Amino acid sequence: MAESETTPGAEAKPFHPRSSAKWRRFFFFGSVLLVNLAAVMWLADLFWCAGLHRAHIPLIVIFAILNGLLTLGSFHALFGAWDIIRGRRRSVRITELADGPAAMLGKRHAVVMPVYNEDSAKFCARIEAIYRSIEATGHLDSFDFFILSDTRDLDLWVQEEVAWTNLCRKLKGFGKIYYRRRKTNDNRKAGNIGDFVRTWGGCYEGMLVLDADSLMDGADIVKMAKVMEAYPRLGILQTPPKLIRGVSVFTRLQQFAMRLYGPLFIRGLNFWQLGGGSYWGHNAMIRVKPFSDFCELPALPGREPFGGRILSHDFVEAALMVSEGWEVWLAWDIEGTYEEAPPTLVDHLKRDRRWCQGNLQHLWLIFARKLPLTVRIHLFMGIMAYLGSPLWFLFLIMGSWLAWDFKMSDLSSLPFDGFVVKWFGIDGQLQALVLTGLVFTLLFLPKILALLGSLLAPKVRRSFGGAIPLLAGIFLETLLSILLAPCAMMAHTLMVAGIISGRAVGWGNQSRETDGTAWRDAMVFHAVPTLAGIVWAFIAWRIGTVFALWMSPILLGLVLCVPVSVWTSRARYGRALARHHILATPEEISPPAIVLLADEAARQGATALDAGVAGREGVIAAVVDPYVNGVHVSLLEHCEMNPVEEALAKRCLKEGTEALSESELSQLLYLAPAMLMMHRTVWLGLTDDVGPVWMRAVESYRRRGDNAGE
Fold this sequence. Notes:
The protein is α/β, with parallel strands linked by helices. The protein has a domain at 619-709. The protein contains 29 helices and 10 strands. It has helices spanning 3-6, 18-50, 56-86, 120-137, 154-171, 188-200, 218-230, 249-273, 288-294, 313-323, 345-360, 373-409, 419-424, 428-456, 458-463, 467-500, 519-525, 527-543, 545-559, 561-569, 571-579, 586-589, 593-604, 619-624, 626-634, 643-655, 662-669, 672-684, 692-709, and strands spanning 109-115, 143-149, 177-181, 206-209, 215-216, 234-238, 242-243, 284-287, 327-330, 337-339. The strands form 2 sheets. Strands 3-2-1-4-8-6-9 form a 7-stranded mixed sheet, with helices on both faces. Strands 5-10-7 form a 3-stranded mixed sheet. Helix 4 (120-137) runs parallel beside helix 5 (154-171). The relative contact order is 0.11.
């Protein structure tokens, strides 16, 4: 294989100079380190003044980690704000490569959407919107579309085939829009994408990877493809998707926070990562050739949860790409990129369980050889997104133990004088207040910066509904975040404990819509945090009123997690907030064209074929309906039916689908001769060979014809 095919073009210089990138990273992380070091030394001096205790050393170590993570997040927002103030022209953005004169794309690209037990009508509506949006740019000939199904539900499989057929008929997209379902879903989504790359990837320069809930503007997709073609060192171009369609209070809370605070963090992240960025698994353009050559993921040593297949494959794929000399960029200025969020706290935490296991698997990789510094930092931040919660929990427990020990021992602190007292002339109480003020400043700095930026920019302020709704939204978001944070802390702590104990996570489909969490379900799911909060509150009260008040935000969040979880899951409260533009986003107040296209496609539907009619839905439709059967059989490989398989088909006809196991029924659905034989037998009306379920399905066509004649 030629070197040029497997390595970035030697003639192409890095988009951003390496020397400048090193100085940026040194300045950013040096600032984080200095602030954190000062805070740790300040706390250590405070402990010295209070008198030594055996809990002080572990508390200082944990504080150094937690405050470091807090400082890191706050400085992302701070540097992001500075980058925004400097202006678009002075900011680093790789998409400027596509700002030149309009030109046709020179290579072919694929838009791929992996799906797993999803609503086929909805994801096909999103594909239709993207298709039409790209068509409007005049670059449709450069793109093909792929629906890559790993769906295990057999009825949904048939409905996907029907939805794909309807979509192609509607758009005249046969030969442009393809559908494939894998027989075995090895290695989950990573295996699904890998199968596409091995089978069809050689035909395309780049592939745009979407999730089933993804939506992207066609002009931005074309821009990403132009950047990919213009810069031969680019391996992955990631976009920062915005959350849309939030109905419940919880989803509105998430999308408001991401939309208001997100740009600061995104710009701050881009400030230092530059070409050493990460991949988030969707809404990203990937150069197919290096992805195929370097991003095949091996199984980790041992068994799950820490071994086996890598769940959080996206971070690792970006790491492999960067380690081989390819650049991974964050296209922070791509605006038309969207996704949806889980509708409730319970659904959000269930999804987090899978992400938690995947990120903890990266402990195997963070010290691997050949990985650049930016890659290790991304892996570390992903790991600490979940390990931070048990550390926070441990810090609070040890702090409570320390307060209890002082209370029960009835001893006063020894009057030691620390460096802060000598140098600054302040007592221990004021020293504690200064440290608390620093921590709270770091905690709320992103909110303060985002609030000031939005209030001072009339266009941004109006896009969120005006000053009053914006202030009300920030207040409500801050209040609910304070209440939800302890619940998430406890949930993540239990997740980590479960993973350490050896409990691996399954692969379930994501809940995207719900009418809310039932009280019973919430009480079961949040039982441990609630009981822990009640016991902890009692202990805090025994320690003292001041300590209980100090711990009250944490304790209230734990004790009230059930009602808060239920209330935030309700769509009716979310709609009430929407009527007053509270927690509103620009995309809600002024929906983008691509969102309107998707909504219109979903309203119109496409029902030339239907596999959802009562009495002949899914698998039954694939056997009985002539058109659905024809579509299904046309997508199967040619094969011969042996006597055992023929006997299985006859048993299915005689006894119905419920008499067969799921594996037996799946085997039949992959046999074209069996599906054709069953279809002919059903319509011949041989009642001795055909069970009542099939005859009722056939009779439903006659009833429909009679009703039409009337």
